[in-house]
Structure formats: structure tokens, C-alpha cells
């Protein structure tokens, strides 16, 4: 059956109705899932297997049958491990129907259908009794319900219900226990992801400073965790203010509560500084003795064992509501708060027992900035070097006091830069009135809250636009070329541009680079066999989901978190001239990219470069040429697009020596889409 789905096109800005397969959402879910990454997580798999073997042995040693409840079974891997370890029967719960169907097939393929029952329900809907899904309660509880924050996928409510209704009292649990750790740091870089810094503008009248509104400075910020690959943050980017503090633990073998709670740790700061950020991670112990442990700690804290890369579990960055000065050796209290799905932190100077604010609610943004800007966007706006590039470009434009500057970008401060550099009146297409007011510009910048095609001459007070300005940045953009929405706005307001009007940026170029990833390739790599179990069915399921649409599409990734080597030189693929309206016919490019360095070609990275002027370009991708070995330095504020090669993602495939990558890339003006096909060619045997 086919269904109509409405979507907002991020490039053209229009609402489109598309005919989709009724299972389109399923395909999307599977294609973008972390299943492959989890199956490639050797450390996770081994520790679970060891913990399951130990739990089954303890039950058998008591002379009992081992009855397993596996919540969130996914592929059925942990249930198959349990049966192999000697479990008498497993009830494998999986709420996502396509995944449950795959688990049934994988279990059958591996010969465990007589001992594993896959139940396609949410665990809270599972019944126990003669006519229920399970005839009796289980005595071993196995789960993998964790996200980077540990509890963000609803682990606590699921455990709470399972202990009340599905498992025996004092059951064995794998994992047995989880502990959340925290470390307090000062970091200008990370703090720039949460607060707006003063922005300095050098003008002919001296330095002007754009200051943040008091509402932004006092706002506690967004409630959500910022999960990142903390291992890619340089230790020089932060100052450690505390030891690693175990904040709280959850014993999964006993009744678990999902009620809100707080946990307090007193500590003496290791150094004086400004407490701004809490770095956090967790570990899980698979056995009661804590001998089998799987940790998410950053690599600099793992001294005894090889580091396991993973993307399905990373590390957490939390921002304190306000930065607090701390003094070396002067005790303070770090408080971890949580409800059923979310963790947040506060710092207390006095004993929490005497402090009535020890139970604050989840932080909520009341300044609107944290709703308008995500964490990378805060960092981008706070990047003074980037701001200086725009200032230098604006200086090349002859802006007169009566010129009208129309700024088109979401949450952009460019109109304020233009004002300080000479434009007396601007019309600004977004909502930033609080910042304008804080800088006494509310009567100098007119905010037009209209779609661009609805703009009238009256909105511009009968004047023509002399300078059309954009970064460009739009909150609806997922892929780099989605910001071509600026081009469509420029086209929509064409009638309002005066003779000789300047458009900045004047053009944009799409660039491509063939890369070898250190680790990111694993998220799209087939697994085949996992710990001795055949999971090819899962590989095929992901491939079908990708073939449904997305095998020929790129996906966004912040590549500063994912090291890679460039195997080619950056190549310009398409150019878009913003000085002219959007063309009526498609723009197509065909060619090839020569590989200059040896390595396995995992995919192509694509990004946009915006040409502010002929001599000034802002890159959303590479910030400087790749080093001799090809190591890449990516813009940390933007996500780049990655087009994966399916033929080189299989770890069992030969290294190969492809000399070129051929491509066809086409921009479709009517839809704003960019379609692409990249193909490896001239494959030779590797000489090394």
C-alpha cells in the first residue's frame, strides 16, 4: 500500500506531499539504526557473554532451571548467548516489529527456535500466567536498554515494571549494576556551546561589542545532554577541577525506582577556576563481584586494556546552570539529579542537607536562544575568527548610511555586524529581538516575520535592498546543501533588489573528498558472524532498508568527532551563483576523482564552501589542506555529508587499490534535491 506523507523541504522551504511505501518509516529507522555498530562492539559482546555465562551458572548451581527474560532483544544475540550458556528457555522481548521479525529468523537460522520465544511487545505489555506470554516469572533478567546517558531510553521504568511483574525477587541480572561517573572541568570551548559570548567588531569609530542579553546569561540552558565522542576533544581544551566522582549506582538485580532523585558528592577542587561543565560517562558490571566490567570512560582513563571505539554509547557533556568560581582545596558539593529519562547537575557550596534548592526541577530554557540554536550553532556564533571573516568581507562592500541590508539566516547576528559597519537600516528575517534590545538596536533593525515570497515593498518602506546578506544558516538544514535555501530566498526577493545590489555570499561550491575512516565505517559495515552466531539476516535487512532509498544518499556526521584520512585531494563538484536567480533547468556534473594516497576508500565526504567575495571563502568542511598522510581537520561547528561505499565496508573484503572514483551529481532546482552516485573503479590488488 502507498501513503501520502507531508514534509517541509529544507532547501526550497515549500511543503511537499510525497507518495511513500507504508513501511517507509521502518526503512528509515533500520537504515539509520545503530544495530551494526552494536554488533561490531567486541568489548560489549564479550562482556555480556561472560556475564550471561556466569549468571546461568549461578542459577544452575542452585539447582534451578534458568529462565531468561531478555528485554530489547534486537537481533536475539543475547538470548542465543544465554541458551548456548545453558539456559533452559528465553523470552526475548522486542517492540519494533521489523526487528522482532528479523530476530525470529535469526533465532531459527541458528537453531534455537525450540528454546527462544520472540515476543513482539513492549515489555510493560507482557503478561505472565497460564494464558500469558510467559507461563511464569523469569529468574535471569538480561537487558540492553541503555543510551549514552544510561537512562535516556527509558531503562528505569522498564526495569521497575519488570521487577514488579516479570521476574522473580532477587533474580540474576545482566548487567548487574551500572555506575554513573562525573568530572568537573573548566572549558572555554565547551562553555561556548552553551552561552553567548561578547562579539567584538572593529569599526572606523573604534571597537564595538555585541553583548548577550541578561536573559541569555542567566538562563539555565537546554535540558538535554550533549553526547559527543569526548576522546576527540583535546585535553588542552579543558582544565580538570575534580577527580572522577562516582555519582550514583543502580542495582538491576533488585527493585528499581524511576522516581526523581538526587545524589550528592562532596569534593575538594584540584585547582582554582570556573566550574562550567560536567563530563560524564558510565560503566556496567555484568556480575555481582564487579569482575566483568564494560566502561564508557574516555581513553585517557583506560590504562589497563585496549580502547574500544563505539558510537552507540559515547560520553556526556552537561552544562551547569551558571559558571561558579571554585577554590583549590575548598570543599563544594556536586549534585546529580535525575528523573525517569534525564540527568542534570548542579553545584552547591553548602551542605545540601541545609540547602532547600537541592531538588530543583529539570532545567528549562527561558531565554529562547537554546531553542533557536543547538550546541554547535552556539559554538559557531561564538567563533570570533569566523565572525572576523564576515567583517572583513563586509568591509569590501560600499555600505552607505541609507542603504537597506536584508539579512536572511536563522538566528544570525550578521545584521548587527552590517549595522556597526555602516548600514543605517536593516530588515532581518528571523527573531532575535532580545539581543537587539540589549545592544540598543531595536529601533535600527526591523524584524520581518514573513516568508520571503510574501515580502512587500511596504515591508521595506518603499526602498530597494542594497545588500542581501546571509551566512547562510537555517535550522531546518540537515545536509550541507540544504542551506541553499538562501538561493531560493534570493530568488523570491529578486524584485526587491536594487540596481547593483550586492549578494553575500555571492556563490557557493560543493566539494568532495574520498576518505578512509579510522572507525566510522563500522556503523555501516555488515557483521556476518557475531561471537559465533550468524546474523547475516540483519545485514540483509539493513541493506534492503538502504536500497529502499538511502543507498544513493549521503548522511550527516560531525566529522571532527570521527578521524579520517583523505585519499584524494578536495574536488569542486558544483558551483551555485547566488548573484543570479535559481535556474529552471537541472545542473549536472560528471567526472572522476583521482586517489593520491593508499588506503581503503570507505566513502566520500561532501561539504559546501561559501564565497563571500572573490577573495574570501567560508568552509563548512575542510579548514585547511590535508596533511602529508591525509589527516583531515574539519569545521567543528558543522555536519558534513558522508556517502558510504558499500563494497568497502565489509571488514573481510580485500584492501583493494582503486585509482579513481567516478561520479554523477545533479542539482534539481524544482525540488532543491541533489542526487549523486559515486563509484569505485580501476580496482587493483594492494601492493602493501
From TrEMBL:
GO terms for cellular component: cytosol; nucleus. This is Protein arginine N-methyltransferase. Gene3D superfamilies: Hnrnp arginine n-methyltransferase1, Vaccinia Virus protein VP39. Belongs to the class I-like SAM-binding methyltransferase superfamily. Protein arginine N-methyltransferase family. PRMT7 subfamily. Residues 176-348, 507-682 form the Protein arginine N-methyltransferase domain. GO terms for biological process: cell differentiation; methylation; spliceosomal snRNP assembly. One of its GO terms (molecular function) is protein-arginine omega-N monomethyltransferase activity. The keyword Membrane does not apply. Keywords: Chromatin regulator, Cytoplasm, Differentiation, Methyltransferase, Nucleus, Repeat, S-adenosyl-L-methionine, Transcription, Transcription regulation, Transferase. SUPFAM superfamilies: S-adenosyl-L-methionine-dependent methyltransferases. Arginine methyltransferase that can both catalyze the formation of omega-N monomethylarginine (MMA) and symmetrical dimethylarginine (sDMA), with a preference for the formation of MMA. Specifically mediates the symmetrical dimethylation of arginine residues in the small nuclear ribonucleoproteins Sm D1 (SNRPD1) and Sm D3 (SNRPD3); such methylation being required for the assembly and biogenesis of snRNP core particles. Specifically mediates the symmetric dimethylation of histone H4 'Arg-3' to form H4R3me2s. It catalyses: L-arginyl-[protein] + S-adenosyl-L-methionine = N(omega)-methyl-L-arginyl-[protein] + S-adenosyl-L-homocysteine + H(+). InterPro entries: Arg_MeTrfase, MeTrfase_PRMT7, PRMT_dom, SAM-dependent_MTases_sf. The keyword Repeat applies. It is found in: Cytoplasm, Cytosol; Nucleus. It comes from the Eukaryota. Its main location: cytoplasm.
Amino acid at each position: 500500500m502507498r501513503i501520502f506523507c507531508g514534509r517541509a523541504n529544507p532547501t526550497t522551504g515549500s511543503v511537499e506531499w510525497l507518495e511513500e511505501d507504508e513501511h517507509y518509516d521502518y526503512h528509515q529507522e533500520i537504515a539509520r539504526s545503530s544495530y551494526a555498530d552494536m554488533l561490531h562492539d567486541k568489548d560489549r559482546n564479550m562482556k555480556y557473554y561472560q556475564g550471561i555465562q556466569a549468571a546461568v551458572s549461578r542459577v544452575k548451581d542452585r539447582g534451578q532451571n534458568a529462565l531468561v527474560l531478555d528485554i530489547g532483544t534486537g537481533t536475539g544475540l543475547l538470548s542465543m548467548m544465554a541458551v548456548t550458556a545453558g539456559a533452559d528457555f528465553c523470552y526475548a522481548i522486542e517492540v519494533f516489529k521489523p526487528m522482532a521479525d528479523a530476530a525470529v529468523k535469526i533465532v531459527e537460522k541458528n537453531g534455537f527456535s525450540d528454546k527462544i520465544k520472540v515476543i513482539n511487545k513492549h515489555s510493560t505489555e507482557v503478561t505472565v500466567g497460564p494464558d500469558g506470554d510467559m507461563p511464569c516469572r523469569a529468574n535471569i533478567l538480561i537487558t540492553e536498554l541503555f543510551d549514552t546517558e544510561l537512562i535516556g531510553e527509558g531503562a528505569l521504568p522498564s526495569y521497575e515494571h519488570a521487577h514488579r511483574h516479570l521476574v522473580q525477587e532477587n533474580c540474576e541480572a545482566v548487567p548487574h549494576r551500572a555506575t554513573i561517573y562525573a568530572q568537573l572541568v573548566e572549558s572555554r570551548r565547551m562553555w561556548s556551546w552553551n552561552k553567548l559570548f561578547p562579539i567584538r567588531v572593529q569599526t572606523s569609530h573604534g571597537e564595538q561589542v555585541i553583548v548577550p542579553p541578561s536573559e541569555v546569561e542567566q538562563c539555565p540552558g537546554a535540558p538535554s545532554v550533549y553526547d559527543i565522542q569526548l576522546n576527540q576533544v583535546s585535553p588542552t581544551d579543558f582544565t580538570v577541577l575534580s577527580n572522577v566522582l562516582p555519582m550514583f549506582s543502580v542495582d538491576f538485580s533488585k527493585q528499581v525506582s524511576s522516581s526523581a532523585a538526587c545524589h550528592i558528592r562532596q569534593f575538594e577542587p584540584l585547582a582554582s577556576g570556573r566550574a562550567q561543565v560536567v563530563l560524564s560517562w558510565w560503566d556496567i558490571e555484568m556480575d555481582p563481584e564487579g569482575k566483568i566490567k564494560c566502561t564508557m570512560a574516555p581513553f585517557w582513563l583506560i590504562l589497563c586494556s585496549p580502547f574500544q571505539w563505539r558510537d552507540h554509547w559515547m560520553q556526556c557533556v552537561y552544562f551547569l546552570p551558571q559558571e561558579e568560581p571554585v577554590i583549590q582545596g575548598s570543599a563544594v558539593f556536586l549534585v546529580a539529579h535525575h528523573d525517569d529519562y534525564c540527568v542534570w547537575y548542579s553545584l552547591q557550596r553548602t551542605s545540601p542537607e541545609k540547602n532547600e534548592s537541592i531538588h530543583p526541577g529539570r532545567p528549562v530554557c527561558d531565554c529562547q536562544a537554546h531553542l533557536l540554536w543547538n550546541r554547535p550553532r552556539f559554538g559557531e556564533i561564538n567563533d570570533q575568527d569566523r565572525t572576523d571573516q564576515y567583517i572583513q568581507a563586509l568591509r569590501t562592500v560600499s555600505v552607505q548610511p541609507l542603504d537597506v541590508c536584508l539579512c536572511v539566516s536563522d538566528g544570525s547576528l550578521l545584521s548587527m555586524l552590517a549595522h556597526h559597519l555602516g548600514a543605517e537600516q536593516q530588515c532581518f528575517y528571523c527573531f532575535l529581538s532580545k539581543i537587539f534590545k540589549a545592544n540598543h538596536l531595536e529601533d535600527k533593525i526591523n524584524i520581518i516575520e514573513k516568508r520571503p515570497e510574501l515580502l512587500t515593498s511596504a515591508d521595506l518602506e518603499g526602498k530597494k535592498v542594497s545588500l542581501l546578506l546571509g551566512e547562510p544558516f537555517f535550522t531546518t538544514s540537515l545536509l550541507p546543501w540544504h542551506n541553499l535555501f538562501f538561493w531560493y530566498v534570493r530568488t523570491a526577493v529578486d524584485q526587491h533588489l536594487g540596481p547593483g545590489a550586492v549578494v553575500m555570499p555571492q556563490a557557493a561550491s560543493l566539494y568532495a573528498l574520498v576518505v578512509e575512516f579510522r572507525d566510522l565505517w563500522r556503523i555501516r559495515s555488515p557483521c556476518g558472524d557475531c561471537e559465533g552466531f550468524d546474523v547475516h539476516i540483519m545485514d540483509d535487512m539493513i541493506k534492503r532498508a538502504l536500497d529502499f532509498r538511502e543507498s544513493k544518499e549521503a548522511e550527516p556526521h560531525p566529522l571532527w568527532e570521527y578521524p579520517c584520512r583523505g585519499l584524494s585531494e578536495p574536488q569542486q563538484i558544483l558551483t551555485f551563483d547566488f548573484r543570479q536567480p535559481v535556474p529552471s533547468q537541472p545542473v549536472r556534473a560528471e567526472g572522476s576523482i583521482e586517489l593520491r594516497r593508499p588506503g581503503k576508500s570507505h566513502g566520500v565526504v561532501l561539504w559546501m564552501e561559501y564565497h563571500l567575495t572573490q577573495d574570501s571563502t567560508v568552509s563548512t568542511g575542510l579548514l585547511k589542506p590535508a596533511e602529508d598522510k591525509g589527516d583531515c581537520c574539519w569545521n567543528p561547528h558543522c555536519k558534513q555529508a558522508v556517502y558510504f561505499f558499500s563494497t568497502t565496508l565489509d571488514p573481510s573484503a580485500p584492501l583493494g587499490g582503486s585509482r579513481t572514483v567516478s561520479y554523477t551529481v545533479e542539482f534539481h532546482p524544482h525540488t532543491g534535491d541533489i542526487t549523486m552516485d559515486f563509484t569505485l573503479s580501476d580496482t587493483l590488488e594492494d601492493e602493501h
